[in-house]
Design brief:
By secondary structure, the chain is an alpha/beta fold. The chain has 2 domains: 47 residues, no CATH class; 340 residues, Alpha/Beta hydrolase fold, catalytic domain (Rossmann fold, 3-Layer(aba) Sandwich), CATH 3.40.50. The protein has 9 helices and 13 strands. Helix 6 links the parallel strand 9 and strand 10. The longest helix has 18 residues.
């Protein structure tokens, strides 16, 4: 704090009239009979020269740096935080997308007390609101602690190609724009990790995933190495037991990318609002990550399971506390029959919701079939808005969207 000297004699004290006032911004104004001196202090600075340090340091991101981040390469570092209750924050250093995670031979995500810091964007007086334009970016995550075996090839580190959709700058009608500049002014956004079904890819679900990004979510869709339609030697469904760890790896790397101030996704991903979702075998994968004690990832805050089932040999005891559940099922599904959804739904504790698509088959309601796809988009977005964003009226909006006479019903257990 900067001070003033007192008059040296009684006469000078009597002749001197002064008043001082420190306002809410830290301004000290001193008036004397002969001059007015304006002294300005800065919040949090107690030594001279600190102002220059603050202006040039990493505490604030200059506009030029923000613009550069929009076209920079996505970087990530392994984060092993698996307890979403821990709120203490630390800063992570940048690393490449192929950074090696902590070695582990367990089938469960590693537990740790380390935490994630969000690289928050500068505050915006009137942040943009949904619907957003949608950017798309494809990255590759490599897990050197686990191996994958393709036919006729030596074992190699498990590589997870991941398609990311995110709110982007620009008119809301622009969607899936490759490497579009992220809409940081409205972030950070909740994260959704989505698992595709057997012998397909995330591209089949583009409309659904795009609708979530337009609604204000970062959506990461991994391509499972052996479960996708383009797997070398053909898809191998037995690899499904390795997919829950793939999904947890994507969560870890996405949180790292959001916390790295130099990464493309800096400031976009909120580490405390995470959902998992999936369809068919991807639904089984997401169900295991959210509720199976062998694969449980405590960072998950909500789960959306689309025509899924329990993972073979799983242990679905729904440990407490369990994330809120939204399950969707076509009543004419002959691949994952309705009974499998009803089985895990009955075991799950509330809050839980069951969307029935009357007469609908297995894949089309989540890829192209209308009006079912539109219903799924609206119901899932409202569910996410309620449990991840806490938006007023979202629950009522979800129930209204799911109750379409002759087309769909929704049951609640809250």
């Amino acid at each position: 704090m900067i001070g003033t000297s007192s008059p040296s004699t009684s006469a000078e004290r009597r002749r001197t009239l002064w008043t001082s006032r420190r306002d809410a911004a830290g301004l000290l104004i001193t008036r004397t009979r002969t001059r007015v001196v304006l002294l300005t202090g800065l919040f949090g600075l107690v030594a001279s020269g600190c102002g220059a340090t603050a202006a040039s340091g990493t505490g604030a991101t200059p506009a030029a740096a923000v613009a550069a981040e929009g076209v920079g390469a996505l970087k990530s570092a392994p984060i092993t935080a698996s307890n979403r209750q821990v709120r203490a924050r630390t800063t992570k250093s940048p690393a490449t997308t192929s950074a090696t995670p902590a070695a582990s031979t367990s089938t469960r995500p590693a537990s740790s007390t380390s935490t994630t810091t969000v690289a928050r964007p500068p505050a915006t007086r009137n942040p943009p609101k949904p619907p957003f334009a949608v950017g798309e970016r494809t990255v590759t995550f490599v897990d050197h602690s686990r191996l994958v075996r393709f036919p006729g090839r030596a074992p190699e580190p498990r590589t997870i190609v991941t398609v990311i959709r995110y709110p982007a700058q620009g008119p809301s009608g622009r969607t899936d724009v490759r490497n579009a500049v992220p809409q940081r002014g409205a972030g950070p956004f909740p994260l959704i990790v989505f698992g595709h079904g057997f012998a397909v890819t995330p591209a089949y679900y583009a409309r659904l995933l795009r609708s979530w990004a337009r609604a204000g979510y970062v959506v990461a869709a991994p391509v499972f190495p052996l479960g996708n339609e383009n797997a070398p030697g053909g898809p191998d469904e037995s690899d499904i037991v390795n997919q829950p760890r793939d999904m947890s790896l994507v969560i870890t790397r996405m949180l790292a990318a959001g916390s790295d101030h130099h990464a493309f996704l800096a400031g976009l991903v909120d580490p405390h609002r995470i959902a998992v979702s999936g369809q068919s075998d991807g639904g089984e994968t997401a169900l295991a990550v959210a509720y199976d004690r062998f694969y449980l990832d405590r960072r998950v805050d909500a789960a959306i399971i689309l025509s899924g089932a329990e993972l073979p040999g799983g242990a679905f005891d729904f440990p407490s506390p369990s994330p809120p559940l939204l399950a969707s099922q076509g009543t004419a599904d002959t691949i994952n029959e309705p009974k499998y959804t009803y089985q895990f739904f009955d075991l799950a504790p509330p809050p839980k919701y069951l969307l029935k698509l009357l007469g609908a088959p297995h894949l089309p309601p989540y890829t192209y079939e209308q009006p079912q796809l539109g219903i799924v988009e609206r119901v899932t977005a409202a569910f996410l808005d309620h449990y991840l964003k806490r938006l007023p009226g979202s629950l009522s909006r979800m129930l209204a969207a799911g109750r379409v006479p002759g087309v769909s019903t929704i049951a609640t257990h809250s």
